[in-house]
Amino acid sequence: DQQVKQNSPSLSVQEGRISILNCDYTNSMFDYFLWYKKYPAEGPTFLISISSIKDKNEDGRFTVFLNKSAKHLSLHIVPSQPGDSAVYFCAASDDGATNKLIFGTGTLLAVQP
Amino acid sequence: DTAVSQTPKYLVTQMGNDKSIKCEQNLGHDTMYWYKQDSKKFLKIMFSYNNKELIINETVPNRFSPKSPDKAHLNLHINSLELGDSAVYFCASQDRGFYEQYFGPGTRLTVT
Question: Does the beta-carbon distance from A100 to B48 stay under 8 Å?
Answer without folding.
Answer: yes
